[in-house]
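seq as requested:
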Amino acid sequence: MDIWLHGITTAVPENRYAQNESAERIAAWTVDPHGQRLAKIAHKVSGIETRHSVLETLGEGFFRRDDAGKMVEPSTGERNQIYRANAVPLALDAAGRLFDATAFDRAAVTHVVTASCTGFFNPGLDYHLVESLGLSESAQRYHLGFMGCYAAISALDAARQFCAADANAVVLVVSLELCSLHLKPNGGRDAILANALFADGAAACLVSAREPEGPRYRLGPRTTQLVSEGEAEMAWDIGDLGFDMVLTSYVPKLIGAKIEALVAAALEKQNRALDDVDLWAVHPGGKAILDEVQKALRLTDEQLVSSREVLRSFGNMSSATILFVLNDLLARGSSELKTCAMAFGPGLTVELFQMDVVRS
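struct tokens:
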């Protein structure tokens, strides 16, 4: 039985910032002159032109100075309150338009799977999606929290498994991240890199065994690979002043050194080889990561055009980003195309998902 990923809808906050504007604002809140220079360099070489944030002025009113002129950062609790106030409307924006774009009735949804690592509250996104969208109150709800950039692939595979077990299942998947709430102008080199990369966004899709019309993805097997050498190179932790991100400059090099063997082994399990893949939906964790993946897998510029376009226009929105890439890919091409989705996260974790484009 084939399982299908139906229409994908995306949403971003109204506040849109040019990358050079972001560089100036972040540098202005950075105390150390060396950190200011690093911030501007990190923004300049990021491959990003614009990003979106729920913060209206990207720092003003979020950061402040006390009477002595010392910068005061918002606490984790204060950041989380902003997450709570903005997460539900943005998730509803993406998910609500999804039903207008597909032939599915809201009452048909049997499962809701949400993914987010940038904030917490309960009743959470899953609850509010059911209540506000008028979904069945008996819909089963699952939340994948604090997994990082690869969480949407885990969510999609969970949806696939639900549908494989029940041919009548219809699963709403929503991934939402408000990464800008964890800006840290004075958090060290890792924070400087994160400040230049991460942004806010949400995406939604439906998964079911019903064969749809028009362009869609047929979901295949998923493979998880761990690169244990990278455990300390990419990580999240909860600090008193927001979430602390570890994202060292070694990550792209580590991915570049390991990715060919990992992908080849994963594709072999899926009865495929590297040359069999037409399209690549690679999570744009950053320009350096895309460069290393392209070099290691010997991909053409065209094969990474969607990943680079999403990075350029939106930055890294953590788990939501891969759905933006898949949405962009779906609008390209003219025939059935073998596709491999790939995302990275703490661990270091590499997730691969066979997701073939079908057109009729």
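The chain has ten helices and 15 strands.
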